Amino acid sequence: MFNDIGGLELIALVVLAVLIFGPDKLPKVIQDVSGFIRKIRAFSENAKQDIREELGPEFKDFEFEDLNPKKFIRKQLDQHGDDLGIDEIRNGFNLKKEMAEVSDAVNGHESDSSAAASSSSSGGTKTSLTKGPDLEKKSAQDDRPPFDSDAT
């Protein structure tokens, strides 16, 4: 319940309680608060028990903690194991390979997987898409838009 309270914070709460209630009334206040917490817990357990009885025998393994979305999803994934195919989906995404194929397609180069496919489909003869040195220079110059002196 109080797992995230550190030592310094606990000391500050004790000092604050002593200042507010005084050292003579503090034990009585602690007893009252602890009794109140016990009553709340008993009420909560009785309500849970009543709900379980009303749901019937088909919900005998129902836990209220499973209503937490994180725990619910974790429990469902544990029950189904690999039946959902999550491992296949996770392993199916090779982003580096996908990005390399896209960049090769944009640049006009043949990727390794498509090169292997084209060499096997063409009977072992590999066609090269490399350009000569003159064509590379010309295509680099052609990529720039034409200069328009009126637009500037």
TrEMBL record:
Residues 133-152 have a biased composition (Basic and acidic residues). It is found in: Cell membrane; Membrane. Residues 113-122 have a biased composition (Low complexity). InterPro entries: TatA/B/E, TatB. The keyword Transmembrane helix applies. Keywords: Cell membrane, Membrane, Protein transport, Translocation, Transmembrane, Transmembrane helix, Transport. Residues 101-152 are annotated as: Disordered. The Tat system comprises two distinct complexes: a TatABC complex, containing multiple copies of TatA, TatB and TatC subunits, and a separate TatA complex, containing only TatA subunits. Substrates initially bind to the TatABC complex, which probably triggers association of the separate TatA complex to form the active translocon. Belongs to the TatB family. This is Sec-independent protein translocase protein TatB. It comes from Streptomyces polyasparticus. The gene is tatB.
